Amino acid sequence: MSKSRFVFALTISLFALTAAFSQGTFSLPAWLENYPGAEVTVQADDSSAVAIYTVDAQPAEVVAHYRKLFEAQGLAFQPNPDGMGTSIRAAAKECDLLILVRSRADGTYAKVSCTARVDAVAAPPAGKIEILKGDSRAQAQSAWQEKIRQHEEQYPPEKFNKDKHDMPAPPLVWPDWLTQIRGAALQPRSGVDPAHYAYMKEQYTTNVPMTDLFDFYRNLLTAHGYRPRAKLQTGHTFTGVQQNALADVEGYNYPDGFPGAYTLIEVSCDRTVLNGPITVSMRFSTHDYSVKRGY
Prior knowledge:
Blueprint: H1 3-21, E1 41-44, E2 48-55, H2 59-73, E3 79-81, E4 86-91, E5 96-104, E6 107-115, H3 118-122, H4 136-154, E7 189-192, E8 198-206, H5 210-223, E9 227-236, E10 242-253, E11 262-270, E12 278-287
Antiparallel strand pairs: 1-2, 2-6, 3-4, 4-5, 5-6, 7-8, 8-12, 9-10, 10-11, 11-12
Helix pairs in contact: 1-4
């Protein structure tokens, strides 16, 4: 196949994949009404929606409001004190729900999060699964093409540096803004991984809700020039209760343009006990660039 025919075929394939897997903006279930009189701020993307508001009511009244809504839907209502207020989790048919109710000086603060379940996100749209059946090479090619599309979306042509040279790894200096969620500084330890890349790492434990940690580090990396890739996963405890058990956020930064030397920040949040403390592990590494090796 000629080079031009290959590029044309690749373009068509990428277009088809983008259309097949694109989704509309996520939304909260229609039955999940906000507390009466609340002025709500809503944030949404392809896999989650969050409603935030503060109302002139007691926390117990807000909790009772959601109890009625849950009971009307036949959902188990299990409010849990979490040290800062009340957290309410449930696996609705539309999504995984987490409702945080907090007492504030100006009223009661509520944050309602609706996150698509992992199985729902991972499953291809109905009628499209046959594209991936049969030939394993076709699956690998589709995955490769999707990876190309993601790279081109993240680093458009105007940011792509064609005339590159070998670059040393950026200095291994822990960013002073990469802190605990409450702002406490860290004391990271240095090391070298099996691939001979230098890194620094640190971890801490916290009782802050998983979704708050997820949002905090995703927004933190974005604010400092990193393009994060993030995922929030649920798991079941031995008692059968579903919870947000794992969260991962990672982001790359190319100080001299892509491709080139870069820094990588990886944050993982892990909880093994229902409503127990969460361990947050952070890793900062630097990587050189070789023209011969590529990126």
